[in-house]
Amino acid sequence: MKKQNSKNCKASAVTLRELREAVGIHFSAWSMLERSLQSALVDLETNGKKARRQSLSQKLNLWKQFHLDRTSEREIHKEFIAELHSILQSSLEIRNRLAHGITGWTALVPGRTDKASISTELNDEETAIEFEELQKITGQTGIIASHMDRITSYALEPDKWRHSDLHADIRKMLYRSNR
After folding, report:
1. For the stretch 75-84, what's the b/e string if a residue is b when 16 or more beta carbons lie within 10 angstroms of its beta carbon?
2. How far is the C-alpha of 75 from the C-alpha of 81, rounded, in Å?
3. Cβ atoms < 10 Å from Cβ of 112
4. Which 3 state secondary structure label does DSSP give 33?
5. 155, CA 20 to 30 Å: which among 55, 125, 167, 168?
6. Collapsing DSSP states into helix, strand and coil, what is residue 55?
7. What ranges in 46-174 are assigned the alpha helix state H?
């Protein structure tokens, strides 16, 4: 279980309802990502019909590999895709824990030091997913899903993006301090 050290906790209350809503929003972001990912795999000609039968992890790996193969001479894009893949793998781990392993909920009550979290157990591993972590990774998942078509276009039409700051633009959105 993730240790929770939250002395000097000054955050506002987080209710069980807000925790449950955050789970729903996470699944909504994944629904959007899955559709965007499937569309990207078809656009990238990675045998989209076959990809429909693969697990999400396999689809993410296929998507990453296509980009790495297709853009081998563009180091900035390879690093960017590896970064996005890492974010999505972390998000997928959380998705799977929420879908298959919730064991408890901890609301944030003023005056207590516990952080708002969702306890999970999956494959004999216990982990607490903190509310703030869930919100951040959900936001990042949604951003990636929303820009999957642009990222795919970069791999397919590199000349179109020659004067674009696609990578910097998306990174700015992913790492906003208010997320």
Report:
1. eebbebbeeb
2. 10
3. 12
4. helix
5. 55
6. coil
7. 48-52, 56-70, 75-100, 131-156, 166-174
pLDDT digit string (tens) for the chain, length 179 residues: 344 443 344 457 899 999 999 999 999 999 999 999 999 998 887 655 566 678 999 999 999 999 988 887 788 899 999 999 999 999 999 999 999 999 999 998 887 778 999 999 999 999 999 999 999 999 999 999 999 999 998 888 877 777 678 899 999 999 985 44
Which one-letter amino acid corresponds to residue 110? P
Cβ burial of 104 (10 Å; 0-12, 13-18, 19+) is exposed
Read off the amino acid at residue 89: Q
What is the DSSP-derived secondary structure letter of residue 108?
B
- Residue 30: is it exposed, middle or buried by C-beta count within 10 angstroms (0-12/13-18/19+)? buried
pTM of the model: 0.86
Q: How far apart are CA 115 and CA 100, in angstroms?
A: 22
Rounded Cα–Cα distance for residues 119 and 63 (Å) = 31
User: Would you say 94 and 134 are in contact if contact means Cβ atoms under 8 Å apart?
Assistant: yes
- Please tell me the distance from the alpha carbon of residue 43 to that of residue 17, in angstroms, as a whole number: 39
Count Cβ atoms below 10 Å from residue 39 Cβ, excluding itself: 14
* Residue 157 DSSP symbol: -
For 123, half-sphere exposure in the C-beta direction (CA atoms, 13 angstrom radius) is: 4
